[in-house]
């Protein structure tokens, strides 16, 4: 039985994956039947690209996607198009639709169907970690800054009052020395 699954590539702690068609019993990175795309979870947002025509072909002949690949194919809309293939529409027309080519042009431009579509972005990009941390730190600074500013003003007034009392005391001592 054939599976559409991920095959790991990349360095240690820097995974990237190929979307491959392989026998169910073969090893994760072992012998494959066909490479039909790639998936990079390290980009923000994660990106993937799966050849729509080949995915539809393998799904239509009975290949089963793994859970991870099923999620990617759902995001790409492949399962909706697969139902339409089963209903009788041609794979070329659906691939052209996926790539933005009108159905009338697909018959004329068969090479267009062989082109690789642009990478699909997984979802709306989440705010970056740096932006979130900056916002939280800014909020914390505002919460702490108000009491600190109040304390600084109070200390400043106390110091000015103390300086004034010391100045008055010095003047009083100097006046007493002049009277003697």
Automatic annotation (TrEMBL):
InterPro entries given in the database record: Ribosomal_bS16, Ribosomal_bS16_CS, Ribosomal_bS16_dom_sf
Keywords of the record: Ribonucleoprotein, Ribosomal protein
Family the entry assigns: Belongs to the bacterial ribosomal protein bS16 family.
Protein name, UniProt field: Small ribosomal subunit protein bS16
Pfam families, per database record: Ribosomal_S16 (PF00886)
Native species: Candidatus Promineifilum breve
Alphabetical GO biological process terms: translation
Cellular component GO terms held in the UniProt record: cytoplasm; small ribosomal subunit
Source species, domain of life: Bacteria
Any one GO molecular-function label of the UniProt entry: structural constituent of ribosome
